[in-house]
Amino acid sequence: MNKSKKSIYIVALIICFLICVGILGTLFLLNRDNSRALVRDSESEQIDHRDQGAQNSESAMAQRQNSSISTFHSLADTLKESNSVFDAKRTMLRVVDGATEDVLSQIFRETLEVPSVIGSIDAKYWILSIVLTKLTNVNAAKAQLLIEQLDEQNVVSVLYGVMREWNQVHTDEAIVFLSAINTEIRYQGLRGLIAGGNILSRSELFEIGSELGYKEDYLNDLLESRRLVRQPLSLVDLQTEFESADPNDHSQMFYLRQNAVRYVLAEGLDSLPTVLELFDNVPTDNASRLFGSMLDWSRANLVSDVSEDDPANVFEFVLRLDEDVDVNLLSAVSRSWFASDPDALWNRLQDEDVRNVQAAIIEEVISYWGRREPHIALVSLHHFPAEYHDKAYLDIAQGISRDSPIEALELLPLTSIWPETPENQLSDDELSVRTRRPNFYIERIIADAAEADPIATIEWLNSDASQLDDSTRQQYLDTVFEGWARTDPEAAFEIALQTPLKEGTTALEATVVTWLAYRDVDSAIDLLPRVRESESRIEAYRSVAWQLEEEDRIADAIKLGNQLPELEREEYLQTIAFSVGQRSPFNHLEAGIKELPTKALQSQAARSAIMFSGTFMSAELNDQEKGQLKVYLNDDDKVVVEMMESVDLDKIKEELPKLPSLSE
To answer: How confident is the model over 179-189, as pLDDT tens digits?
Structure first.
């Protein structure tokens, strides 16, 4: 081969080398950085779980579970079999739905006599409310009699508490029930309905009060007392409160919003734009990073509170506020509108002027009710457009996944995207807003369930009920063990070792070690020798090596490689050298190279640093720094680097065929 051809051959080798190393390096960094980012995100992410409401209606889960309800023996026995609050409420809904008058009366009495079985006073009143709702439909006089047979002290508190737990689905039953109650105590029930007014709108409460025979002035006083505990501030006083508020004090921001709501309710909707602008006056000097999100959240909740009495009117007002539609504010109004008249809301969202934000608003409404009040969302599923039922199930499952993990998992097969997701079938441009990234939500639900009860979650994933094939099951088992590794790595590791290891699958104990390495690398090192032989074993060693290198423990990382067979050890050491070559600043890079035990590894690290200088993989090196690194190059790497520097790579890259992106 003549000199010219040899030069061309070397250049070609360099180009191929750069392309291959570039792709491998990209995958290396993506894997390494994404793993660390996921650890940080998973540990910082907190989902807002509120106490869950419930409804007396057939739920989707009840429809799925067609098994008959056993004869009701006692409230204590029924609730004792439940695994969670969600499960207990679902069980009681099903029991009450099929109960006779005598059984309903029995449940009513036991609820009063054995309050410790229920857990909380709110739960007690909730059970009483669903019993009375059912009984009102069957025999209203019997429902009235149960209340009026209570002693004088109990009748007031029970009637108030029961009606506070009543909900918007059963407004007609509330009127029928209260109409039959003695007028001397009836107003206590009306007060309870008003106290629970986060569900019923002002107009609905006014209608109920009118049906019960109360005068307009009296009803106005009762309804105003719900909101206007004290007189609203003047605009000047309100502005002063905003300007002196501490954005990091959540309770102060809550009361500030309540004051703003009172002002708008007193002054009228025309004052809303002025009040919304006041949020810009909150001091930002000591604000947290979440300050902007908190302000958006507070603005949205202000509009939601204001719209409770007349959401349709507020919707139109907000729509006219600006030329650009504020989706957050419209969504806030829609949350309230859904509670009072979902059909009217969906009809309005079909109109042309909001068609382009329709999906975003519907998603927000579903997310709000699904995660904040999952029981209400579940029994109201028929009110959501059919094409959004998958999202509703996922949001509900996410809302209950930590408190009721198995119930959350059982919702997943009800979706059309389980176990395959649209991401497996559609290209990015075909994915709609509502189906984008379903894998993320499913994995989050499974991770939350695993955090609450990892053993039960694993058993469910391995059961026929999960409907999973081996490959998909492995994916979700990885998710479980990733989460479990953060809470109880030793237990997770021992259970992982008992999991059958199939060819081509990940050894789940390797998953535990990989995630443990980012939190406690020494504990991860102790577990490494017990990882079974598999394709993922070397990955676990690499993860530990990356962490050791990051902690400046290169010698420990090198020593760890002695546990590996020769071929795997060579690959492992190259990983360490490549990682060292991405260090910065320069003094840190050179110190790491000096710690590598062989000339070959030092040369590889120096070559990587020079060749990737100034790319997204490595910091920019000046000529002097490159010269210092060339001292560590062996003869072969010197030739590669020199040839690379003598070639106009930019020009050659232009003539090369375009490489597909990593996502294709």
So the answer is: 878 777 787 78
